[in-house]
UniProtKB/TrEMBL annotation:
Residues 26-45 bind DNA. Residues 3-63 form the HTH tetR-type domain. PROSITE patterns: HTH_TETR_2 (PS50977). Keywords: DNA-binding. This is TetR/AcrR family transcriptional regulator. Gene3D superfamilies: Tetracycline Repressor, domain 2. It comes from Rhizobium leguminosarum. One of its GO terms (molecular function) is transcription cis-regulatory region binding.
Length: 189
């Protein structure tokens, strides 16, 4: 079955945006890669800004789905935190990994409210996932979840700059320490 044209365009644009950068990739390059006419691209995405936002929305949905799969892999909240970081390590341990697509997009295209809005929505969704884990563990969600989220985001940025995926494993260990420290002493004995 043939994929819809909009998905074909998004796949081509998304791959190029992530690997080469949003500003570096022109519409003509996307048209060539997607094998569509310019009119077809603009019928589906009225501007590059719309295309970038759609790429980020698609990526957001995939990342959230992946995080949900990590949550579904184990029931214990501490293990869920561990699995999230270990799956991030698997992604980061690739020569194609450039860091967080949302941070990259805002760095390049931050003058677009449409792009910034999708990026903010994504970051909130990731934070909400950590909040849900901490809430399930009955650990008082706000501060602990914020720490876990910051460790996750920091790992993404550190790997992007340092090109050392083991930074994610360090972040995982820190996250598990934060989780353990949040457990009330009367529950640990």
């Amino acid at each position: 079955m043939r994929e819809p044209i909009s998905d074909q365009i998004l796949a081509a644009a998304g791959g190029l945006f992530y690997s080469e950068g949003i500003r570096a990739v022109g519409i003509d390059r996307i048209i060539e890669e997607a094998k569509v006419a310019k009119a077809t691209l603009y019928r589906h995405f009225p501007s590059k800004d719309h295309l970038v936002a759609a790429y980020l929305q698609d990526r957001h949905e995939r990342v959230v789905r992946s995080l949900q799969e990590a949550l579904d892999a184990t029931a214990a909240p501490r293990d869920q935190v561990r699995v999230i970081f270990e799956r991030l390590y698997e992604k980061a341990d690739s020569p194609e990994f450039r860091g967080c697509a949302f941070a990259l997009a805002v760095a390049e295209h931050g003058d677009s409210e449409r792009v910034v809005s999708v990026a903010r929505t994504h970051k909130k969704a990731v934070s909400d996932i950590f909040r849900a884990i901490i809430s399930k563990a009955e650990l008082g969600p706000d501060q602990t979840a914020a720490h876990l989220s910051l460790l996750y985001e920091g790992a993404l940025a550190t790997v992007a700059v340092g090109r050392d995926p083991t930074a994610v494993l360090v972040a995982r260990d820190c996250a598990l320490s934060v989780f353990d420290a949040a457990i009330p002493h009367d529950r640990t004995s």
